[in-house]
Amino acid sequence: MNLKDENTIFKPLRVLRHSKINAYFSKNSEDFVVREKPLYEFSGEGEHLILHICKKDLSTHEALRILSEFSGIKMRDFGYAGLKDKQGCTFQHLSLPKKFEKNLLNFSHPKIKITQSFIHNNKLRIGHLKGNSFFIRLKKVLPNDALKLEQALENLNKIGFANYFGYQRFGKFKDNYKEGLAILQGKKMKNVKMKDFLISAFQSELFNRYLSKRVEISHFVKEFSLSELGEIYKISKEEAKNLKAQKQFFKLLHNEVLGHYPFGKCFLCEDLKKELERFKARDLSAMGLLVGLRAFECGEGFAKKLEQEFFREGLEFKNQMQGSRRFMWGYLKDLKYHYDAQKAHFSFEFFLEKGSYATVILNELLQDEDLEN
Q1: What is the three-state SS of the chain?
Q2: Which one of 3.30.2340.10, 3.40.50.300, 3.40.50.720, 3.40.50.1010 gives the CATH number of domain 162-330?
Q3: pLDDT < 50: residue spans in the chain
Q4: Whole-number Å distance between alpha carbons of 248 and 236
Q5: Strands 333-340 and 345-353, how do they pair?
Q6: C-alpha distances in angstroms, 352 versus 13, 40, 327, 338, 373?
Q7: Residue 373: what pLDDT?
Q8: Transmembrane region positions (predicted)?
Q9: For 96-150, what is each residue's pLDDT tens digit?
Q10: Whole-angstrom Cα distance, residue 215 to residue 229?
């Protein structure tokens, strides 16, 4: 495939196959709430002040700018564990040097509230969070669609979900990755942060396409015979048998890269039978490639052949990117849901590990690509 010249917009395959569910979703502060869960307890001592803030309809950078302008603290002195959605009500932690605590004593803003403060040893860095809890309210949900939502949520809770990158990575026209590829091919860009972001969009696009193929394989294993699988994917009868023998939805491949779930070291799937048991116990996940020099290498066989096919355009520029691995299969935690028939509101809550997108879950449930526009 030639990503730069491709005109069609890629749409990842869904795990669930129910028909579209009719519901109205608005990413506002009443119907979309995100709560960040820190990676660890704050120590209570040290030279850094941790602020727990609630912001409404502001990006993290916009909130930091407001706090900076009020206090005189430079933007670079703030730390944060993750960027939160602009739309909706979001709770997150920020850090700043403790010496500036008095600068924020009289802070007041209609869209930002400081709810708590802690003392800690370290500045917060990107990734210093366990994950996020989400509350989503859907409106105009008829009883029949509420039942479909309940079933879809229970299915996802049981089997897990494909951990696609969300549409936020790809821009309004879903073509950020083309700009990323152009930069790798030599296009100049002075803004280093934007350059890195666009290159990451290119890595994310390849990841999503590969994961979509793995979802396809997982569906096809159930639907086709051994000989048909062999013909479709050019694999041996033994490899087809290994796939057919797996009862869980998402199929693992011999010699692919696995990682301890949700975060841990990467290793090769050399003993498929043994690793399948750990996968079913949610102790590990298959790790998709984010192309680059530091990415853990896949082993030989069908797994490598498939990676080389889908990441070919990225591997050409491997030396220009650091690279890593990202888990392809994730799980909901702490799922709750409630249907208010009188108001026709369907509300649900769940926790996702860091790096997963609530909008991906919502698209999977509603089967509605228009949510991304």
Answers
A1: CCCCCCCCCCCCCCCCCCCCCCCECCCCCCCEEEEEEECCCCCCCCCEEEEEEEEECCCHHHHHHHHHHHHCCCHHHCEECCCCCCCCEEEEEEEEEHHHHHHHCCCCECCEEEEEEEEECCCCCCCCEEEEEEEEEEECCCHHHHHHHHHHHHHHHHHCEECCCCHHHCCCCCCHHHHHHHHHCCCCCCCHHHHHHHHHHHHHHHHHHHHHHHHHHHHHHHHCCHHHHHHHHCCCHHHHHHHHCCCCCCCCCCCCEEEECCCCCEEECCCHHHHHHHHHCCCEEEEEEECCCCCCCCCCCHHHHHHHHHCHHHHCCHHHCCCEEEECEECCEEEEEEEECCCCEEEEEEEEECCCCHHHHHHHHHCCHHHHC
A2: 3.30.2340.10
A3: 373
A4: 21
A5: antiparallel
A6: 20, 16, 13, 19, 23
A7: 46
A8: none
A9: 999 999 999 999 999 999 999 999 999 999 999 999 999 999 999 999 999 999 9
A10: 14
Is 85 known to be catalytic? yes
| Residues 351, 333: Cα–Cα separation, whole Å | 5
* Domain ranges (residues) in the chain: 32-130, 162-330
Predicted pLDDT of residue 169: 84
Q: Which of 353, 337, 346, 371 is nearest to 155 (CA)?
A: 337
CA angle, 286 as apex, 281 and 292 as ends, to 5°? 150
Measured between alpha carbons, how far is residue 303 from residues 19, 218, 297, 333 in Å? 32, 14, 11, 29
Q: Closest Cα partner for 217 from 242, 181, 194? A: 242
Q: What is the pLDDT of residue 339?
A: 98
What is the distance between the alpha carbons of residues 365 and 1, in angstroms, rounded to a whole number? 30
User: What kind of architecture, by CATH, is found in domain 32-130?
Assistant: 2-Layer Sandwich (3.30)
Which one of the listed residues 57, 77, 85, 368 is annotated catalytic?
Answer: 85
Q: Tokens in use for 234? A: 């050019």
What torsion do the CA atoms of 273, 275, 279, 280 make, to the nearest 10 degrees? Answer: 30
One-letter amino acid for residue 137 of the chain: R
Q: Are 127 and 176 in contact (CB under 8 A)?
A: no
Q: Parallel, antiparallel, or unpaired for β 79-80 and 89-97?
A: antiparallel
